[in-house]
Amino acid sequence: MYEIASRDSTEQKAYKKSTRKKVNAMATVVHENLPPVLDSKSEQPPSVFDGTTRLYMAYTCPFAQRVWITRNYKIFYFLFSLMFCYYLFIYLFGLQDEIKLVAISLEDKPVWYKEKVHPANKVPALEHNGKIVGESLDLIKYVDSNFEGPSLLPDDPEKRKFAEELFSYSDTFNITVYGSFKGDPAKEAGPCFDYLEKALHKFDDGPFLLGQLSLVDIAYIPFVERAQIFLSEVIKYDITAGRPKLAAWIEELNQVDAYKQTKLKDPKGLVELYKIRYM
Description:
It comes from Citrus sinensis (Sweet orange). By secondary structure, the protein is α/β, with parallel strands linked by helices. It has helices spanning 10-26, 62-73, 111-117, 136-146, 157-179, 185-188, 190-199, 215-235, 244-253, 257-260, 267-278; strands at residues 37-38, 54-57, 78-84, 87-92, 100-104, 125-128, 131-134.
């Protein structure tokens, strides 16, 4: 596999940025048939610990969506052969078969999932190399580090440091924003969206939180997606009003197919669920 030296020249940095954009563009051609949801009535579990890598997830779970997006993005990576005249030969490989999805019902989990796969009985969980890896933030880093594909964390030390700051804030963001659904979202959740707006001003080499698309964007977007739907529909609160960078960030992510394929298919169902849960 072609590797670029860690100390990049200006040309190499520009090449990496261009390549990342191509990955985003090329990803729009990939679609997969999603597996059915398994519940307590599912007759047989999939074979487990047989050497197959499986991502146990739920289509409606934002934590699982983080790992699903990461897995989808890593579908494409580039192997470079010769540069002959003006032609660059590009080969595309996928992780769809390398990381198989196993969809679990959150409301009616199969008994075998807790007994045979993940005693914590939570999703997401990754079955890989004879072990189970859990916790969504750990998992997206694990998938990025252990599977082929374009890296979703930058080499730049300053960006790496800021990434860790954003990861650390994500739990506070989620708890505060979702807790505000029972109170005054504009007052309580507004500062959280202001935090993202400010963060999006830090780097000017792209529209994402670290400039280019990264695990940090993937960590936040599932929760922002749900909050935007609920707050807009029920509270009539526009999270992007007065936050142009946040609006542009959401719009850019909506163009990334690795994310688009994971978006909620039933926003109205989410609204009704959240009304029961939070109001």
